[in-house]
Design a protein that fits this description.
By secondary structure, the protein is mainly alpha-helical. It is 50% helix and 4% strand.
Length: 333
């Protein structure tokens, strides 16, 4: 985690604008900070302001160079400098296109702020900056059979927090929520009479998730054994999922729970993870639930329907079945 006190003033001004005016999430602010500090370090090396043996030392550059960096360095930036930074990331770190695309987004938003909002630059060097092309990859997901197997592994005799862990897996596999959304659920967010809950997604956007019978049953059975004496942090409310220390369960804790249950179910933890359970829920709903793509977009909290469309893939068996069930399949002259 980068301390804001290590940032140059113009970077903190951008972060403040992004948080207060643009209402960016805390995670987005952290990503902007991390990405831009790395970019600034590269510029200091690129312009020979800081002397290093080689570019592999850029990332570990002492932060005081960034803290005291003059805005004149930013004024020197041209599009080719940004391209050089992206090339350095690929060359030195073998960074994936998705990683470089995130850096591009951070840099593009930063320079947009400097030119259009702060009026500190006349020309935006990132105006024609393109994102790396991302290959379309099918999401990895559990089959219906493996999903049932995973749920069946959670038993009181092997898991002292069986009710809690079962409820966590059930919500992931039925609702397709994100890790941060599940961890952030408070008891007041659940409407038991209407069988629905509200969650806070990306960009602090609130949405409604409807709960089916399996979810309601799992939550109610967990609440019967959930500790009533929850330790509340200063900013905390009344969390649904609680750790053994009687505090809101952490992201890492949930990741470890999912990993443990995947192992017990004999499933490959190199292939599956918490996020893959979100993919699983979306895929199962699309394949078996006859759900409209727009409804699925709303359920998952996607801004763009293009993101949701990765779940419209179908298996080879379904493609074969579609051909074999063509009414002309048995027609012969």
């Amino acid at each position: 985690m980068i301390d804001r006190r290590d940032n140059p003033e113009f970077l903190n001004e951008f972060l403040d604008y992004s948080a207060s005016i643009q209402n960016r999430s805390k995670n987005s602010i952290k990503e902007y900070n991390y990405d831009l500090v790395h970019f600034f370090k590269f510029l200091l090396y690129q312009y020979r302001i800081v002397d290093l043996k080689n570019e592999k030392e850029i990332k570990d550059m002492d932060l005081h160079y960034v803290t005291n960096m003059s805005f004149d360095v930013i004024k020197r930036v041209r599009l080719q400098d940004i391209h050089a930074f992206l090339s350095y990331l690929e060359r030195v770190y073998d960074s994936k296109p998705t990683t470089r695309a995130r850096k591009v987004s951070s840099i593009r938003i930063f320079f947009q702020y400097l030119t259009a909002k702060a009026n500190r630059l006349e020309i935006n060097p990132a105006q024609n900056l393109e994102s790396p092309k991302l290959g379309k990859r099918m999401p990895k997901y559990l089959s219906l059979e493996d999903s049932r197997k995973l749920l069946d592994t959670v038993k009181p005799e092997t898991d002292r927090n069986a009710e809690r862990d079962y409820a966590i897996l059930t919500l992931f596999l039925n609702c397709g929520m994100r890790l941060s959304e599940l961890v952030g659920i408070n008891l007041k967010d659940i409407d038991f009479s209407e069988e629905k809950m509200t969650v806070i997604g990306k960009g602090d956007k609130e949405r409604t998730i409807y709960l089916n019978k399996a979810c309601m049953k799992a939550i109610n059975e967990y609440l019967l054994v959930r500790s009533k004496e929850v330790i509340k942090d200063a900013e905390d409310k009344d969390p649904l999922f609680v750790s053994e220390r009687r505090k809101r369960i952490s992201n890492r804790n949930v990741q470890n729970i999912v990993k443990q249950e995947l192992l017990r179910a004999g499933l490959d933890i190199r292939k599956y993870s918490v996020h893959k359970l979100r993919h699983t829920a979306a895929t199962l709903m699309y394949q078996y639930g006859n759900v409209d793509i727009r409804a699925l977009q709303e359920l998952l909290g996607h801004e763009s329907i293009a993101t949701t469309q990765i779940y419209t893939h179908v298996s080879n068996e379904q493609v074969r079945s579609a051909v074999e069930n063509n009414p002309l399949a048995d027609y012969n002259q």
